[in-house]
Amino acid sequence: MILVTGGMGFIGLHTAEQLAAAGERVLVTRFRRSRSPEFLEPYLQSGQVEVADLDVSDPFSVLEVMASHKVTSVLHLAVPGLGAVPVGREIEVNVGGLRNVLEAARALGVGRVTVASSVAVYAGSAQGPWTEDDPLPVTSPSATSAFKKAEEILALHYAERTGADLCCVRIGVVYGPLYHTLSNLPSRMVHSAVRPGTVLPPRPAVPGSRSDLSDLIYVADCAAGLRLVHLARSRDRIYNLGGGRAVPDVEVTAAVARAVPGWSPPEIAPNSGGDESRYMSLASIAALGFEPRYSLDDAIAEYVEWLRDHDL
After folding, report:
1. Does domain 2-171+219-241 have CATH number 3.40.50.720?
2. Measured CA distances, 290 to 81, 225, 227, 280 (Å)
3. What is the pTM of this model?
4. pLDDT tier at 212 (50, 70, 90 boundaries)?
């Protein structure tokens, strides 16, 4: 039984489906929110995918859930929403939750623990493409950058001290069906095109970063990469998981315009120069057999079709 913490989240639901499709039994956790997209429904009905309530900041609950469901490995995706809780609570959930998962896994003799990290750890780094052994800046321009770097350091140190089978996956900017915050450009443009009049939140500004270039990865490719890394027998400790290039905003809007003829995109500021090598190298994960399957056009077209028939 593979435990997917944060399994009711955007990435978690798609990853659970990928794992189940590969024949694995999966336990997804929820915290105050439950979703059951149709692509996961057959696995829920058959019992191949199960659901458990869990607050990862509660160590006793983590231990009880893992023990009672006979969990054999963990894919740790749980994270509070950006800006949803005060910083003290963020530390409790992010760092404390990681500790609780690692300690429960050690106590119960659970196998691999895969910890979700982010491309945000590279914010402020020098020229790319970034590789997993590049030095990371100590300063962090965002909460995601700070917490994911801290979690990586602590998780890897824990593994060195205990011999745990652990790896971290640095995930790019993910978009696609079920993404609900509308924080990244693809989601905002697709919603704008499919549902005219959608009120779009401001795009978060990250100091020192290029706002018009993103290492984008479609959620289906992201879930496939997480499945591949989690089930691999490789002993590498860190993997990049992105789209393999920096995608300009203008390419995103052009892809949406092709998928929704007649849509007039909002004006996007032209590229301000800068380094288009600012994306993650996929050499390590490619050695496991990973390659993004979706082109930008294919991903946007599928996302558009999904949104025409679904809320998210």
Report:
1. yes
2. 28, 6, 10, 14
3. 0.94
4. low
